[in-house]
Amino acid sequence: MSNVYRVDGAPAGGATTVSFGERFQSSEQFDHIFKEGMALVERTASYLDGPGRKEAKDLVGGVGVLYATESMRLTTRLLDLASWLLIRRALREGEITDEEAQKKRRRVKLQAFGRPSHVKGYTDLPQGLQNLIEESFQLHDRISQLDRVLAKPSAAETPQAAVNPVAQQVGLLERAFSVKFS
Known about the structure:
The chain is mostly helical. It has seven helices and no strands. The protein has helices at 20-25, 28-49, 51-57, 62-92, 98-107, 127-150, 165-177. Helix 2 runs antiparallel to helix 6 and helix 4 runs parallel beside helix 6. The model has no long low-confidence stretch (mean pLDDT 83).
């Protein structure tokens, strides 16, 4: 019997699985992303209710419609990101179970709407809105990447035992002819 232990306290010869999700959720990095996300939500709400509202009144034609469209997309994207962050925090705090978190997460749509910077009239939008849109996409990209890493594989994604293609074909022939080949 060995008395040698690894840094994490596990016996030297033993295998230990480390959950990135659990470690990340209890880390300073998660706290930083959480605070950053919630601050972006607050800044966006302040902008859209204050300076953005005033700036939108000065826009004419298609740019006014584009402003309305992009501000709605921005709001939707931020609500989805905030929901994701709140679910992860609730899981960390023990307010919900892993199963509940997965169920809630399935309702959050981390859709990657196309970046509007190539849309005609985008550069005519107020710079404040453009900056918030860009920040929201940067946060969206980071959270989407984390979500993929933290996602638990479904039963359909779990690797199955290797299939023997010859045995599979023999099985199909047996069923087709209802005869057992030896």
